[in-house]
Amino acid sequence: MTEHLTFDQLCDLEDGALDVAESAAVRAHMEWCAECASRHAALSALGAASAALPREIAPPDDLWLDISGQLTPRRTLGAGFARAWNVRQLAAAAVVIAVASSSLTALVLHSRTRVQSASTPASAPGPDAPVAELPARLASAEHGYAQSVEALQRTLDERRDSLAPSTVATVERSLRIADSAIAEARTALAHDPANRALVALFASNYERKIDLLRRATELAPRT
Amino acid sequence: MATVLPFTVPRTSADASTRRDASLASRAQRGDEKAFEELYREHAGRIYALCLRLTADKATARDLTQDVFVRAWEALPQFRGEAKLTTWLHRIAVNALLMQRRSERRRLSRVSLADDDADDADASLSGASAPQDVGTAIDLERAVAALPPGVRRAFVLHDVEGYSHEEIASMTGLAAGTLRAQLHRARQLLIKTLSP
C-alpha cells in the first residue's frame, strides 16, 4: 500500500467497519506515512470532540406552556375505541356505508317505482345524471354537514404529512367511497325530496362520512 | 377511560431512569398530563439539543421540539415500550424534521435538497494536517450548524448521538451507502472547517 489512504478508509477504520486484514493494512500504512497518520489523528480528534458535545441543551423556559396548550385530553371510552381504530377498519367502514347506502337507495327507489302508476316514467338517477338541486330545507342541512366535513378535512390535511403514505391512500379511498354513497343518496333525494327514507339515508351517509373523517384525524402518526 | 395495552415495565433494577420513564409513560398513556410534563422535563434537554443540531436554527428547533412532544402525546397510547422512550422521541424528532423538510420542498417547488448537492470540490482532505485543536465545543457546534442539512443529520445522529448506521437507516429511510457517504462528507467538511 504505497498510495495515500482514502478518507473513506480512514473513516471505516475509525468506525470499526474494516475487517481484520484491511484494518492491519491501513494501520501498517500509517506507521510510515505521516500524512495519513495526521489525517487519521484529525478524524479521531473530531470523533472525540463530537462525542464530548453536551447531550442536553436547555430549551426555552416557556416551551412547555406552548406544548401543554396543544395537548388534546385523552377521550373517554367511546373515543378510546375510536382511537383504537386502524386504517383497515376505516376502509371497512367506508365499504359498509357504500353497500348499505346503495342497497337502501335501490330499495327505496324500487318501492317508489312500484307504487307509481305505470304511465309515470321512473325517475331513478342514472350514473351520468346531472347534480340536481335539493329543496331549501335539505340544502340547508347539507350546508351544515359540509361545514363539519370541511373543518375535519382541514384537520386531516394538516396531519397528512404525519401519516404513512399507505395510510393516507386508504383514508382517501375510504372517503371517496363515502362521497359516492352520499352522491347516490343525494341524487335520489333530489328526485324524490319528500321520501323520508331517502332523507334519513342522506343524513346518515353524511354523518358516517363525518365519523370516518373524525376517526381518520385520530389515527396515530407514524413514528 | 381509553383502552390502553399494558405498558411493560423493565425489571432490571439498574435502569431506574428507564423504569421511571415507563411508569410516567404509562400514566401519560391514560391521560395524566402531569406525568407527561415530568417526561417533558426529563427529556426536553436532549430533544431540544437534537432538534437544535439537526435544524441549526433556534426558532425552528423550538417549533420542532414542540411538535415532537405534541406528537408524542398523541402517539403515546400506541407506545408499547419496546424501545427506550428517548429513542422513540428521537425517532419522532427525525420524522418531524423529515416531514418539515418535505413540506418546505413542496412549498418552494424544489425537487432536491440543493444545498446537499452543493459543489464542494475543495472538501478533499488530501494534504490536510490535523487541527492543532479540534476546537472548542462552540467552534464545533458552529461548524456542525454550517453543514448542509443532509450530511448534518447523518453526522449528528451517528457521531454525536451515537446511533448505528442501521438505526439511522431505520429512522431516515436512507440507504446504507448514502448514509455512509453523507457521514464521511460531514467529517471531511468539519475537519476542513476546524483546521487552522
Mean pLDDT across all amino acids of chain A: 76
Number of helices of chain B: 8
In whole angstroms, how far apart are the ends of chain A? 46 Å
Q: Find the biggest chain interface.
A: A-B, 50 and 63 residues
Unreliable parts of chain B: 1-11, 109-135
Strand content of chain A: under 5%
Give the uncertain stretches of chain A in residue-range form: 76-84, 114-129
Approximate strand percentage of chain B: under 5%
From the spread of the alpha carbons, the general shape of chain A counts as elongated
Report the count of strand segments of chain B: 0
Radius of gyration of chain A: 32 Å
Computed over alpha carbons, the radius of gyration of chain B is 19 Å
Please state the structural category of chain B: mainly alpha
Helical content of chain A (DSSP H or I, runs of 4+): 55-70%
Largest sheet of chain A: none
Task: Kindly report how far apart the N and C termini of chain B lie.
Answer: 61 Å
Structural classification of chain A: mainly alpha
The count of helical stretches of chain A stands at 9
Main sheet attributes: strand count, strand direction, barrel closure of chain B: none
